[in-house]
Specification:
With 501 residues, the protein is an alpha/beta fold. It is 30% helix and 15% strand. It has 16 helices and 21 strands. The protein starts with 9 loop residues before the first strand and ends with a strand. Bound molecules: iron/sulfur cluster (2 copies).
Length: 501
């Protein structure tokens, strides 16, 4: 049966006057869009394969290339837009589930952009972060209700295990397999230099990265890939992954074609085997079951490591978080519906879950109402895009934020959203050696450090403007926030007033 023609998403525009047929674009494009036509001595393109990653555009020595949106459209129809029709054609041709990667691109509300931050004027002076000390350090973990000190002033209370971060940001879970060795190396080096943590994701820890253990969160997901005693011992904290914002309620699948060499060794599964993470943990069907795993992991690491439980932001997240806080977990990580992924079914990514802003406000409030807020720290992720988003998240009640897409952008990601293909032209979401080497881990790590240092400075400036000199004093300080263009209901859930009030 012949398939239906699917209109290419992009047009490759090549300037004949600039192109010198050097064939750089041909070598740089793993999607084989460009080719040299020997007979005519010119370059040609197969735009149907182009994903608009901008690699060829960036590296063309004569700036001869431009990738633009293909304007070829069917007749306008407000009910059946172009993308919807094209997706139906693709499914009619393939009979398969549509796959996507990175975060939800739909124009759903971004509440961060409807929340504004306060600044001090006249009665409460701002603080100049260049001249006054500003504390950006945070400690994540269970906080004791009371702290007692001995006569010498030293702590008598034994503190539960804590994570110390130099700033309230960590690199979120991205597995070795979904991203490359060099991407992991960049994250590990940068986290160590910055005094923050990165996260192994569910793919285990490559032996080369054990040296960065003090700055690593080791993840235990439903597939239990690469989990063993030394792995748990090495991490600064252990994260149980129950869910992920980009694909709540479903498992993960890394195809056997990507399970090669070191990836297979690190995951402890044979080469060529599909790495399937089941949707549920097969031993967790209640908070009591979760508690058993939390305490098994604590027991295995002699109660020295904080345990994080990561969940996707879903409708009854406040009740779920309340259960997790009572399970013995030290930290709850909540991933909003705009969170990224290496691969997810498009329908799930675009339609399941709730915004992190609403989930965070609801959880923080619920834990306060129940008097158990100090039992856990809250870490939120799912499209934290800037220092301003971090500050807003802290004021809404978070202890720290997880970032992943922003970190990948610092590594050179161009958000073409086709990580699932394994042909990332920027050397990030790929295992192909010739592509992996395009990302230099030293340069990648330096750019991550730059980004975080820039955010740290901006966080200090924003806090200084509010007259606040520590992250601790900002946490849960919703008086510092005002909403614009939000309904009564949205303001109520966020627990903030409208601008002008
Ligand atoms: S996929 Fe990337 S490298 Fe290939 S033609 Fe398109 S923009 Fe250029
Ligand atoms: S990681 Fe690579 S494949 Fe994925 S969105 Fe970024 S540039 Fe595209």
């Amino acid at each position: 049966m012949n398939g239906i023609y699917v209109t290419p998403e992009f047009d490759v525009i090549r300037s004949d006057t600039r192109c010198i047929a050097c064939r750089v674009c041909e070598r740089q494009c793993a999607n084989e869009v460009h080719a040299f036509l020997e007979k005519k001595g010119v370059m040609i393109s197969d735009e149907a394969k182009c994903v608009n990653c901008q690699r060829c555009v960036s590296l063309c020595p004569t700036h001869a290339l431009k990738i633009v949106k293909n304007e070829c459209r069917l007749r306008e129809n407000a009910n059946w837009d172009h993308a919807t029709i094209q997706e139906i054609y693709k499914q009619a041709n393939s009979g398969g589930v549509l796959l996507s990667s990175m975060g939800n691109p739909k124009p759903l509300p971004v509440y961060w952009d409807k929340i504004l931050i306060n600044a001090s004027q006249v009665t409460n002076p701002p603080i100049d972060p260049l001249r006054e000390p500003m504390e950006t350090r945070v400690f994540l973990g269970k906080k004791p209700e009371k702290v007692t000190r001995g006569a010498d002033g030293n702590l008598v209370t034994t503190l539960p295990p804590q994570i110390e971060l130099s700033m309230p940001v960590m690199f979120s879970a991205m597995s070795y397999g979904s991203i490359s060795y060099n991407a992991h190396a960049s994250l590990a080096k940068a986290a160590t230099e910055l005094g923050i943590l990165y996260n192994t994701g569910e793919g285990g820890l490559h032996e080369d990265f054990y040296a960065y253990g003090k700055n690593t969160v080791v993840q235990v997901a439903s597939g239990r890939f690469g989990v063993h005693e030394k792995y748990l011992e090495t991490g600064a904290a252990i994260e149980i992954k129950m869910g992920q914002g980009a694909k709540p309620g479903i498992g993960g699948h890394l195809p056997g074609t990507k399970i090669v060499g070191d990836v297979s060794r690190t995951r402890m599964i044979p080469e060529g085997t599909d790495a399937i993470s089941p949707a549920p943990h097969h031993d967790i069907y209640s908070i009591e079951d979760l508690r058993q795993l939390v305490y098994s992991l604590k027991e295995a690491t002699r109660y020295k490591k904080p345990v994080i439980v990561k969940v996707a932001a879903v409708h009854n997240i406040a009740a779920i978080a309340s259960g997790i806080a009572r399970s013995g977990a030290d930290i709850i990580a909540i991933d909003g519906f705009r969170g990224g992924t290496g691969a997810a079914p498009t329908r799930i990514r675009d339609n399941v879950g709730i915004p992190i802003e609403l989930a965070l406000a609801a959880v923080d409030q619920r834990l306060r109402d129940e008097g158990i807020r100090g039992n856990v720290s809250l870490v939120v992720g799912g499209s934290i895009r800037s220092a301003a988003d971090v500050v807003k998240a802290l004021a809404l009640g978070a202890d720290a934020c997880y970032i992943a897409t922003a970190a990948l952008l610092a590594l050179g990601c161009h958000l073409c959203r086709t990580c699932q293909s394994g042909k990332c032209n920027w050397g990030i979401a790929t295992q192909q050696p010739e592509l992996v080497k395009r990302l230099n881990p030293e340069l990648g790590s330096a750019r991550l450090v730059n980004l975080m240092n820039a955010w740290r400075h901006e966080i200090k400036e924003l806090m200084g403007g509010m007259g606040i000199n520590s992250v601790e004093a900002l946490r849960g300080n919703r008086l510092m926030l005002r909403g614009v263009g939000l309904t009564e209901k949205e303001l109520k859930i966020l627990g903030i007033s409208h601008a002008g009030e």
